[in-house]
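Tutorial handout. Part one gives the primary structure; part two gives the three-dimensional structure as tokens.
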Amino acid sequence: MAHARRRRLRDGAVAALAVGMLAVPAAGGSAAALPPSTTAPSTTAPTAGQPSPSPSGDDVRALTPAVQRQLDGAVRQVMREARVPGVTVGIWTPDKGQYVQSFGVADKSTRQPMSPDLYTRIGSETKTFTVTALLELVDSGKAGLDDPIGKYISGVPNGDRITLRQLAGMRSGLFNYSEDDDFFKALTSDPERPFTPRQLLDYSFGHPVLFPPGAKFDYSNTNLILLGLVIEKVSGRPLGEYIRQTILEPAGLRHTLFPQGNEFPTPHAQGYTDQTATGRVENATDWNPSWGWAAGAMISDLEDLRVWARTVATGELPDGSTLISPATQKQRLTTPATPIPGAGYGLGIFDVQGWIGHNGSLPGYETLTIYLPSARATVVVLLNTDINAKGEEPSTLFGDAITKIISPDHVFNLPAQPTAK
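Part two.
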């Protein structure tokens, strides 16, 4: 148990910032990177609206056979060094080819190979769907980004001062429930148990607020749980149903879902974690992701995430129609700086050296879905472990290795923070 207490349950977003993790003291993780994993170091916020730095250069390399061989070698090297059982990598460009490859095994017991058609838990990438649902309500005039959370949900510390915008931008000051020791014990003692959103908030609200609203960036799954409750209250529908009807169906994402419990469509890989009560590696495939809920519980696959990468980064559906209004999308993509040089965080989304998107991590799985607008290029990485390698999230190691090859002017270099509490 001592080992477990030294881990932060990653959910996927900011274990590298975390870039998307739902870490259990790690939602989406992912859940919720989530997890989502999950909290980024605090820093004084820059001037509102200040974008994160983006390097010059607007191109990606052509995915020639030679470049694809180079990618094969880089992926295999990360797998060896990080001891990743299986990974699938997808890269798509409009005019320079594509690359889709799977490596390793989906199941260490049966040696079933990893393949591109597998469902996966996406941890904190769930946050991009939850925040999109909120922005749709903003577009329809049913909610305002500068509304205080107390207008919708009672009992929130500083609820009369924390805005929906600050919740979506990870600047609320609310304690991250997935870092609470009692939560960690409850989850790891019975990983298949369900959690309600109110139970998750109780773990958070038992702690003092960390700073005044808007003063700093601090990645917290608590923020997304509150936004999920806002969406349910304003829409009058369960969060999963609202996301399905207003986002998944219009975008044609037929293999993306918000599970009610620990259901997991087949085929899927087995997921391996050391975020356990003992610190030993266990199979987390059937753990209940309800603890990540709006921050990290969702499931998807490679092809759907390919479509979603561009959709969330542009606000446009695949048919060219608008999912989010240009004005609201501009607010989403205003990404003030974070503690990581070259990385900004907007409304439920990262900008890392020009790559727009999110990562996800929760016990057993990690994902990375990013889009480079200057080249209209997409990268998706799916793997069946969340076990750190020398203090680094494995999804970030893959993102770094891949983008060093295909976009050397835009390297996804999001370092992991220490997970010690």
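Part three, for discussion. The radius of gyration is 19 Å. Residues 65-82 form the longest helix (18 residues).
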